[in-house]
Amino acid sequence: MPGAPSPVRVAAGPSLGGRDASIHPVLTRSRWLAILLMLGAAGVLVVIAALRVGAEDISFSQAARILLQTIREWPAGEASHDPAAIILIQVRLPRILLSFMVGGCLAAVGVGLQALLRNPLADPYVLGISSGAALGAAMALLLGIGTTVFAVSALPLCAFAGGLISILLVYRVAVSYGHLPVHTLLLAGVILNAIFSALIMFITSIAEPNRSFGIMSWLMGTLMAPDYLALAALAVYLLVGGLILFRQGGALNLLTLGEESARALGVEVERVKKAVFLSSALMTGAVVSVSGLIGFVGMVIPHAMRLLVGADHRLLLPAAALAGGMFLTLADALARTLLAPGEIPVGVVTALVGGPVFIYLLMAKKGGLIR
Amino acid sequence: MIGAPAYEVRDVTFHYAHRMEERQRNRWELHEISFDVTAGEILGIIGPNGSGKTSLLKLMARLLRPHAGTIRLFGSDVAEMPQDAVARTVAVVPQESQYAFSYTILQTILMGRFPHRRSSGLGLFSWEAQDDLRLAHHAMEELDVAHLATRSIHEVSGGERQRAVIARALTQEPRVLLLDEPTAFLDLNHQLEICRILRRLNEHRGLTVVMVSHDLNMASQYSDRVMLIDNGGIVRLGSPDSVLRPDVLAEVYRCEVIVDRHPDTGLPRITLPGREKLPASNVNRVIPSDDRRPNHKER
């Protein structure tokens, strides 16, 4: 920081989210609970609605009957031969659970990265973390490890490693003398994305044809119905990552003031940064290894939730997770019904929604963003 | 307990590691500095650009680590204290803050409670308790920002924001307040207001205040003692009268200054000389505006 006074010294920073935060009162226990319960209830409604939607018409009462029966007979239940039951239990429900987890996780990671990088445009996809994870996973696929059962495969771990490397790279490139200029950060993401995409293309080009088709369709961002074992494995990764990330909520509030201010207020900044980097890479890696590249959820949802519930990360993190789950569940419901019985990759839907929002954010607040 | 040292700084040496050229030339940001800060005093730190004022303040707040020497805070070595323990004793009012997201004034002020937080459930939950809110409201009253509690930090004026930052510092319940140019970029009325607030906090709460300032007059009027540093070392430390002397200032700042008495307090008042009367033929010559060293040095 130059010693000579410059007129912009008392930096207000980009004011995305602008005036709206003024309506958000202090976070109390009851307010925290009330908002999360409301969002949770909305999430349940979204899941029920999504169960109803699909190529096969299954009524609510039918769905309820099948679900109850399955729960009663679980875990010893005979596999049902009712096609509706098979569709509901083997296809739709796991897919909905998957999209909820993936969406929630991407949104929570987005919140964490935005706070840490003090930038409302940060998102695992934009910053190249998703493609780093995808590169890790693609290398695992090329080498033939972990193509079958996710629970015991090295795939999420390779994706985790790829994600972690790209987070550290992006941060190293973007940070200069303790400051994180917005344009360097976004450029670093763009360049990493380009490099990783090139490497992924190289991998697909040298892989056997059937394997390379698998990599391509996975990369587009799909939510294929997984088995419950894979879902459980994913849930474990996300719970561990989520626990690490959500613990940092209070510290993240202070980190948005800048690292030095946060440290002066008693935050062990390096520890918090490590926790956020690790948990983001873990969650992104796990998600990318099952669903490929699904963009913009991690940017749009945090922005929307900041407007709705305020910027207190103790509330924003779980709120964005729930909203992200709902958003991706709905997006996937759209993806599988718009051209039924065909399907659109859900990544296409989220990019078509999220891309314009990203552009709007850049345009609308241009003045505030360039620091 | 007036008289006991709040800070004991001993032989502190510091340089910025990333400045290669300085390291090679063996140029120190601060070189073997030693001084005490008495509990309950207001100490003003002055010096030219790049003299190491801000670095010294950051060292005292454990935001930077000295390369040699020790800093003791009420008897404990700062280097061995956890960051939140430092923050329970020392509050920092920085020169500038970033506000990437729109928090309300009240939310900003409550951040001062972070070092005192108690969390439960694996550290997942921590909320503001009634005590925290009470402290925040008390600080807001004291700094006259209570009416702004629900306004966004982006909406308020620079003076109001600075008062909010001081209120946040107070909710830390510190024993020492470190301020880095608290009145820079503020209008005259806000400058006066902040200075008076600091004096009041010092008198009423017994708060020890260490204040870095560019403004020699502010240092003179509001400090019990003044420390003049230059080139990484202490030039003089003592009462405003003994430090703010024309010969001393002229040597350190390399320019002529006029020192007389402030009409209200009788303390030194520093004024720059008036416009030179130039010979007509020289009117267009370029006058170097200052001969200070490159200003990138001070961070």
Summing up helix and strand content along with how strands pair, one would put the structural category of chain B as alpha/beta
* End-to-end C-alpha gap of chain B: 34 Å
Q: State the assembly state of the protein chains.
A: heterodimer
The most extensive interface, with participating residues per chain, is: A-B, 55 and 60 residues
Our estimate of the beta-strand percent of chain B is 15-25%
Q: Per CATH, what is the topology of chain A?
A: ABC transporter involved in vitamin B12 uptake, BtuC
Q: What is the succession of H and E elements of chain A?
A: HHHHHHHHHHHHHHH
Distance separating the two termini of chain A: 13 Å
User: Percent range for helical residues of chain A?
Assistant: 55-70%
Mean pLDDT of chain A: 80
Gross morphology of chain A is globular
The main β sheet of chain A shows up as: none
> How many structural domains can be distinguished in the coordinates of chain A?
1
Q: How many strands appear in the DSSP assignment of chain A?
A: 0
What order do the SSEs of chain B take from the amino end to the carboxyl end, as H and E? EHEEHEEHEHHHEHEHEEHHEE
Average pLDDT figure of chain B:
85
Overall shape of chain B: it is globular
Architecture of chain A, according to CATH? Orthogonal Bundle
Question: Quick summary of this structure?
Answer:
The complex is a heterodimer of chains A (371) and B (299). Chain A is mainly alpha-helical and 371 residues long.
Please render the helix and strand layout as text.
The complex is a heterodimer of chains A (371) and B (299).
Chain A: H1 29-52, H2 60-73, H3 83-116, H4 129-142, H5 155-174, H6 182-206, H7 209-219, H8 228-246, H9 249-255, H10 259-264, H11 269-291, H12 297-309, H13 313-337, H14 346-364, H15 366-369
Helix pairs in contact in A: 1-13, 2-3, 3-8, 3-11, 3-12, 3-13, 4-5, 4-6, 4-7, 4-11, 5-6, 5-11, 6-7, 8-11, 9-13, 12-13, 13-14
Chain B: E1 5-14, H1 20-24, E2 30-38, E3 42-46, H2 53-60, E4 68-73, E5 76-77, H3 83-89, E6 90-93, H4 105-110, H5 130-142, H6 158-171, E7 176-180, H7 188-205, E8 208-212, H8 216-222, E9 225-230, E10 233-238, H9 240-243, H10 246-253, E11 258-261, E12 268-271
